[in-house]
Amino acid sequence: MERPPIITLDGPAGSGKSTTAREVARRLGFRHLDSGALYRALTFALLSAGIREEEWPLLPQEAFDRFRIWLRPSGPRFQVLLGDRLLEEELRTPEVTARVSPLSALPAVRAWLLEAQRQAGREGALVADGRDMGTVVFPDAEVKIFLTADLKERAFRRFLERQDRRPSEEELEEEARNIRERDERDSSRSVAPLKKAEGAMEVDTSDLTFEAQVGVIINHVKVLTRG
Ligand code: DC
Q: Measured in whole angstroms, how far is the alpha carbon of residue 154 from the centre of its chain?
Protein backbone atom coordinates (compact mmCIF):
# COMPACT_ATOMS: atom_id res chain seq x y z
CA MET A 1 0.00 0.00 0.00
CA GLU A 2 1.16 3.53 -0.76
CA ARG A 3 2.20 5.54 2.28
CA PRO A 4 0.02 8.49 3.38
CA PRO A 5 0.99 11.87 1.88
CA ILE A 6 3.69 14.35 2.86
CA ILE A 7 2.75 18.04 2.82
CA THR A 8 5.48 20.67 2.71
CA LEU A 9 5.09 24.28 3.83
CA ASP A 10 7.94 26.64 3.02
CA GLY A 11 8.17 30.39 3.31
CA PRO A 12 9.97 33.36 4.86
CA ALA A 13 10.24 34.19 8.56
CA GLY A 14 6.96 35.24 10.15
CA SER A 15 4.75 33.96 7.34
CA GLY A 16 2.94 31.78 9.87
CA LYS A 17 4.35 28.46 8.65
CA SER A 18 4.67 26.69 11.97
CA THR A 19 1.29 27.57 13.44
CA THR A 20 -0.39 26.83 10.12
CA ALA A 21 1.46 23.56 9.66
CA ARG A 22 0.55 22.48 13.20
CA GLU A 23 -3.15 23.13 12.60
CA VAL A 24 -3.18 21.50 9.16
CA ALA A 25 -1.49 18.43 10.68
CA ARG A 26 -3.99 18.34 13.54
CA ARG A 27 -6.98 18.43 11.21
CA LEU A 28 -5.58 15.68 9.00
CA GLY A 29 -4.39 13.55 11.91
CA PHE A 30 -0.81 13.86 10.61
CA ARG A 31 2.37 14.67 12.52
CA HIS A 32 4.01 18.09 12.30
CA LEU A 33 7.75 18.62 11.75
CA ASP A 34 9.13 22.10 12.51
CA SER A 35 12.47 21.78 10.71
CA GLY A 36 13.66 25.21 11.87
CA ALA A 37 13.78 23.73 15.38
CA LEU A 38 16.62 21.43 14.28
CA TYR A 39 18.70 24.35 13.00
CA ARG A 40 17.94 26.17 16.22
CA ALA A 41 18.91 23.12 18.30
CA LEU A 42 22.32 22.93 16.64
CA THR A 43 22.82 26.68 17.15
CA PHE A 44 21.92 26.25 20.83
CA ALA A 45 24.26 23.25 21.17
CA LEU A 46 27.21 25.12 19.63
CA LEU A 47 26.63 28.17 21.80
CA SER A 48 26.28 26.03 24.94
CA ALA A 49 29.48 24.16 24.12
CA GLY A 50 31.28 27.51 23.93
CA ILE A 51 32.42 26.99 20.34
CA ARG A 52 33.18 30.41 18.89
CA GLU A 53 31.05 31.52 15.94
CA GLU A 54 34.10 32.19 13.78
CA GLU A 55 34.86 28.49 13.99
CA TRP A 56 31.42 27.26 12.92
CA PRO A 57 32.10 27.46 9.18
CA LEU A 58 35.26 25.38 9.65
CA LEU A 59 33.57 22.44 11.38
CA PRO A 60 33.23 19.25 9.36
CA GLN A 61 29.91 17.42 9.42
CA GLU A 62 31.26 14.78 11.86
CA ALA A 63 31.97 17.47 14.45
CA PHE A 64 28.23 17.76 15.06
CA ASP A 65 27.77 14.08 15.94
CA ARG A 66 28.84 14.68 19.54
CA PHE A 67 25.70 16.75 20.12
CA ARG A 68 23.28 13.88 19.59
CA ILE A 69 20.42 16.02 18.33
CA TRP A 70 17.42 13.89 17.45
CA LEU A 71 13.69 13.96 16.82
CA ARG A 72 11.31 12.04 19.04
CA PRO A 73 7.77 11.43 17.77
CA SER A 74 5.38 12.63 20.43
CA GLY A 75 1.66 12.67 19.65
CA PRO A 76 1.01 15.25 16.93
CA ARG A 77 4.58 16.57 16.78
CA PHE A 78 8.28 15.78 16.94
CA GLN A 79 10.16 16.88 20.00
CA VAL A 80 13.76 17.98 19.55
CA LEU A 81 16.24 16.49 21.99
CA LEU A 82 19.87 17.15 22.75
CA GLY A 83 20.99 13.83 24.21
CA ASP A 84 18.20 13.24 26.73
CA ARG A 85 17.44 16.91 27.25
CA LEU A 86 14.19 18.11 25.70
CA LEU A 87 14.65 21.51 24.02
CA GLU A 88 11.74 23.95 24.07
CA GLU A 89 12.04 27.64 24.88
CA GLU A 90 15.87 27.43 24.62
CA LEU A 91 15.30 27.37 20.87
CA ARG A 92 13.52 30.72 20.72
CA THR A 93 15.95 32.98 22.60
CA PRO A 94 17.23 36.12 20.82
CA GLU A 95 20.79 34.65 20.99
CA VAL A 96 19.75 31.60 19.03
CA THR A 97 17.49 33.54 16.64
CA ALA A 98 20.30 35.96 15.80
CA ARG A 99 22.73 33.18 14.87
CA VAL A 100 20.61 30.47 13.32
CA SER A 101 20.41 31.93 9.83
CA PRO A 102 24.19 32.11 9.17
CA LEU A 103 24.54 28.63 10.66
CA SER A 104 21.85 27.25 8.38
CA ALA A 105 23.75 28.50 5.32
CA LEU A 106 26.63 26.10 6.01
CA PRO A 107 26.62 23.06 3.70
CA ALA A 108 27.98 20.74 6.43
CA VAL A 109 25.07 21.71 8.69
CA ARG A 110 22.43 21.11 6.04
CA ALA A 111 23.94 17.76 5.07
CA TRP A 112 24.10 16.69 8.72
CA LEU A 113 20.44 17.49 9.39
CA LEU A 114 19.07 15.99 6.19
CA GLU A 115 18.77 12.38 7.32
CA ALA A 116 16.88 13.15 10.54
CA GLN A 117 14.30 15.10 8.55
CA ARG A 118 13.86 12.40 5.92
CA GLN A 119 13.47 9.78 8.65
CA ALA A 120 10.62 11.85 10.07
CA GLY A 121 8.83 11.48 6.74
CA ARG A 122 9.53 7.79 6.23
CA GLU A 123 5.96 6.73 6.90
CA GLY A 124 4.30 9.79 5.37
CA ALA A 125 1.36 11.43 7.18
CA LEU A 126 3.61 14.43 7.74
CA VAL A 127 3.25 18.19 7.49
CA ALA A 128 6.79 19.62 7.36
CA ASP A 129 7.55 23.34 7.54
CA GLY A 130 10.78 25.18 6.80
CA ARG A 131 12.64 26.74 3.89
CA ASP A 132 13.62 23.77 1.72
CA MET A 133 11.04 21.11 2.59
CA GLY A 134 9.55 21.03 -0.91
CA THR A 135 12.77 21.69 -2.83
CA VAL A 136 15.40 19.54 -1.10
CA VAL A 137 14.21 17.44 1.83
CA PHE A 138 10.97 16.07 0.35
CA PRO A 139 11.15 16.80 -3.39
CA ASP A 140 8.57 14.07 -4.02
CA ALA A 141 6.02 15.38 -1.51
CA GLU A 142 2.44 14.98 -2.69
CA VAL A 143 1.45 18.54 -1.70
CA LYS A 144 3.68 21.63 -1.63
CA ILE A 145 2.69 25.01 -0.25
CA PHE A 146 4.64 28.29 -0.32
CA LEU A 147 3.40 30.70 2.33
CA THR A 148 4.06 34.44 2.02
CA ALA A 149 2.86 37.67 3.65
CA ASP A 150 3.80 41.39 3.47
CA LEU A 151 6.96 42.24 5.36
CA LYS A 152 5.09 44.64 7.69
CA GLU A 153 2.46 42.03 8.47
CA ARG A 154 5.11 39.42 9.22
CA ALA A 155 6.98 41.87 11.47
CA PHE A 156 3.74 42.62 13.29
CA ARG A 157 3.03 38.92 13.87
CA ARG A 158 6.56 38.20 15.04
CA PHE A 159 6.36 41.05 17.55
CA LEU A 160 3.03 39.82 18.93
CA GLU A 161 4.48 36.34 19.40
CA ARG A 162 6.88 37.81 21.97
CA GLN A 163 4.91 40.66 23.51
CA ASP A 164 1.36 41.20 24.64
CA ARG A 165 0.93 44.63 23.07
CA ARG A 166 1.03 46.35 19.72
CA PRO A 167 4.47 47.51 18.58
CA SER A 168 5.34 51.18 18.19
CA GLU A 169 6.24 52.37 14.69
CA GLU A 170 9.98 52.15 15.52
CA GLU A 171 9.65 48.68 17.03
CA LEU A 172 7.78 47.52 13.96
CA GLU A 173 10.49 48.91 11.71
CA GLU A 174 13.23 47.24 13.69
CA GLU A 175 11.43 43.90 13.57
CA ALA A 176 10.92 44.32 9.83
CA ARG A 177 14.61 45.10 9.36
CA ASN A 178 15.63 41.94 11.22
CA ILE A 179 13.21 39.78 9.26
CA ARG A 180 14.30 41.28 5.93
CA GLU A 181 17.96 40.62 6.72
CA ARG A 182 17.17 37.02 7.63
CA ASP A 183 15.07 36.51 4.48
CA GLU A 184 17.82 37.91 2.30
CA ARG A 185 20.37 35.60 3.87
CA ASP A 186 18.05 32.58 3.66
CA SER A 187 17.16 33.32 0.02
CA SER A 188 20.62 34.11 -1.28
CA ARG A 189 22.66 31.28 0.23
CA SER A 190 24.11 28.83 -2.26
CA VAL A 191 22.80 25.63 -0.62
CA ALA A 192 19.06 25.03 -0.41
CA PRO A 193 18.01 28.69 -0.60
CA LEU A 194 14.48 29.68 0.35
CA LYS A 195 12.43 29.54 -2.83
CA LYS A 196 9.11 28.30 -4.06
CA ALA A 197 9.29 24.63 -5.06
CA GLU A 198 8.19 23.66 -8.52
CA GLY A 199 4.50 22.84 -8.43
CA ALA A 200 3.96 24.54 -5.07
CA MET A 201 0.79 26.50 -4.44
CA GLU A 202 1.54 30.03 -3.23
CA VAL A 203 -0.69 31.35 -0.46
CA ASP A 204 -0.36 35.03 0.48
CA THR A 205 -1.65 35.23 4.04
CA SER A 206 -1.43 39.05 4.46
CA ASP A 207 -5.20 39.50 4.28
CA LEU A 208 -6.38 36.04 5.26
CA THR A 209 -7.63 35.03 8.66
CA PHE A 210 -5.90 32.05 10.19
CA GLU A 211 -9.01 29.96 9.67
CA ALA A 212 -9.15 30.94 5.98
CA GLN A 213 -5.53 30.12 5.30
CA VAL A 214 -5.81 26.73 6.96
CA GLY A 215 -8.99 26.12 4.95
CA VAL A 216 -7.30 26.97 1.63
CA ILE A 217 -4.52 24.51 2.37
CA ILE A 218 -6.81 21.71 3.53
CA ASN A 219 -8.89 22.09 0.37
CA HIS A 220 -5.78 21.96 -1.79
CA VAL A 221 -4.65 18.80 0.02
CA LYS A 222 -8.04 17.20 -0.57
CA VAL A 223 -8.00 18.05 -4.27
CA LEU A 224 -4.48 16.72 -4.78
CA THR A 225 -4.82 13.59 -2.68
CA ARG A 226 -8.51 12.95 -3.33
CA GLY A 227 -8.76 12.56 0.44
O1 DC B 1 11.54 28.79 10.85
P2 DC B 1 12.57 29.26 11.88
O3 DC B 1 12.52 30.74 12.14
O4 DC B 1 12.54 28.48 13.16
O5 DC B 1 13.98 28.95 11.19
C6 DC B 1 15.20 29.30 11.79
C7 DC B 1 16.30 29.43 10.74
O8 DC B 1 16.63 28.16 10.24
C9 DC B 1 15.95 30.31 9.54
O10 DC B 1 16.69 31.53 9.59
C11 DC B 1 16.37 29.52 8.35
C12 DC B 1 16.78 28.19 8.86
N13 DC B 1 16.03 27.09 8.27
C14 DC B 1 16.50 26.57 7.10
O15 DC B 1 17.50 27.06 6.57
N16 DC B 1 15.88 25.51 6.53
C17 DC B 1 14.79 24.98 7.09
N18 DC B 1 14.20 23.95 6.51
C19 DC B 1 14.26 25.51 8.28
C20 DC B 1 14.91 26.59 8.85
A: 15
